[in-house]
Design a protein that fits this description.
The chain is of the alpha/beta class and about 425 residues long. The chain is built from seven helices and seven strands; from the N terminus they run αββαββαβααββαα. The chain starts with 15 loop residues before the first helix and ends in a 10-residue tail after the last helix.
């Protein structure tokens, strides 16, 4: 079921008078295609829920178009039949060829559009040369009064006064004829022989007084075309709820039933009120006792209040001491934080120095390894040299022994005595 939000009429969710106001326009429109018999092609621009699109059983085809997807879903499921179709589209840019329709309907839609002039231009484009646009809109001044405290209609982009509406239509169409639409009371005489399935097609409308001023019309309805618009006589439609007195009587009976229900409700309220009055008396007695108790409690509270003030002052002093201590601790923490930052920088520097020393240690370790191999090589050479030295020493010792022997020989001593021969020093 399509939800009624106030943007469009939904049968079954609005009062009969409102629905009849909208249905009457479609019955009025049917007179403009009567001469075309079954050859008429109709566009219901801004069809909404689709209840009016189906009101042309004699037309060749009727297309209902709307921008709202949910409304079209409801229309297709509720009102589609052979020859009646529903399509989604913008009225400011109709997806149809030039000269496609005999009749274009735009009931209560122009006031919903920001670019309403585009809609009028598109309607004229898709109409046949003899085609007619039927367009309606509420009278801005009267509509505002009838809405009362409800305020402006949030779904209306632009509302029209009579002169503005006429001039807007005449700017697009060479021929324009306007009607007023009002819901009014009438006394109807209908032949009793008319069957329930046959509609009275013609009759007489007698207006006893002058026509109401155009400025007081509830709605304006205009027929626009490229050719002269036929002059139609006043039109009145008697809906199914046409016996206004009977409908009012039924409504009065419903209201009487509601009033009886409300009277029962009021009697029950009076009984409940009496019980409440009795309960109120008991409550007042208890209240007086409670007030006496409250007076004593008030004194205790005053004494407690004074004590609380004293405690608050003491607490404020303690808080002041705490705040001073916290300030000192914050300063100490800031100093320690600075020291920690400095220490962190020193640690970072020390770490960098350790990394450098580790690299230097690795380099020196390599050098020490090389020097160790060199020292071991020198040790081996020294050992060999010592061995050769020992061998030389042995030979020298043997030579010294020989020299001593030679020095002690008689021949050497005799030569020394006469200062002849070599001087031999065995040491």
């Amino acid at each position: 079921m399509l939800e009624f939000t106030g943007e469009r009429v939904v049968p079954g969710q609005v009062n009969p008078d409102l629905l009849n106001e909208h249905l009457a326009r479609y019955r009025f429109a049917a007179r403009f295609i009567a001469a075309r018999a079954r050859g008429a092609v109709i566009l219901d621009a801004g069809c909404g829920a689709g209840y009016g699109t189906r009101e042309f059983p004699g037309a060749a085809s009727v297309i209902g178009m709307d921008i709202a997807h949910d409304a079209l879903v409801h229309a297709r499921s509720s009102y589609a039949r052979p020859g009646v179709y529903f399509a989604r589209g913008r009225l400011e840019s109709l997806p149809f060829a030039d000269g496609s329709f005999d009749l274009v309907l735009a009931f209560e839609v122009i006031e919903h559009l920001e670019n309403w002039r585009d809609m009028l231009q598109e309607a004229r484009r898709v109409l046949k040369p003899s085609g007619i646009l039927l367009v309606s809109t509420p009278n801005k001044d009267v509509y505002g009064v009838l809405r009362g405290t409800a305020g402006p209609n949030q779904y209306h982009a632009h509302e029209f006064e009579y002169s503005e509406f006429r001039h807007a239509l005449q700017a697009e169409f060479p021929h324009v004829r306007l009607w007023s639409q009002d819901l009014t009371e009438a006394v109807a005489f209908i032949p009793l022989e008319t069957s329930a399935t046959r509609t009275v097609a013609a009759g007489a409308l007698e207006a006893a007084g002058d026509a109401p001023p155009l400025e007081e019309a509830h709605f304006y309805l205009a027929a626009c075309g490229a050719q002269e618009i036929p002059d139609h006589s006043p039109f009145a439609w008697l809906p199914e709820s046409g016996n206004l007195l009977l409908e009012r009587e039924r409504h009065i009976k419903l209201l009487c039933g509601e009033i009886e229900t409300k009277d029962d409700f009021l009697r029950q309220l009076h009984a409940d009120q009496a019980a409440l009055m009795s309960a109120n008396e008991s409550a007042n007695r208890e209240l007086r006792l409670s007030n006496q108790w409250a007076e004593g409690l008030k004194k205790s509270l005053e004494e407690s209040g004074a004590r609380v003030v004293t405690l608050q002052n003491e607490l404020e002093a303690v808080h002041a001491g705490y705040r001073e201590r916290i300030r000192i601790l914050n300063e100490e923490a800031a100093a320690r934080l600075a020291w920690v930052r400095e220490l962190s920088q020193q640690i970072e520097g020390g770490q960098a120095e350790i990394d450098r020393l580790n690299q230097e240690y690795a380099r020196l370790t390599g050098i020490i390894g090389e020097r160790t191999e060199w020292a071991q090589s020198l040790g081996r050479e020294l050992s060999e040299t010592q061995c050769r030295l020992e061998e030389v020493r042995g030979r020298l010792t043997a030579a010294q022994t020989q020299l001593r022997a030679v020095a002690q020989s008689k021949w050497v001593r005799a030569g020394r005595a006469i200062h002849l021969g070599p001087v031999i020093n065995p040491e």
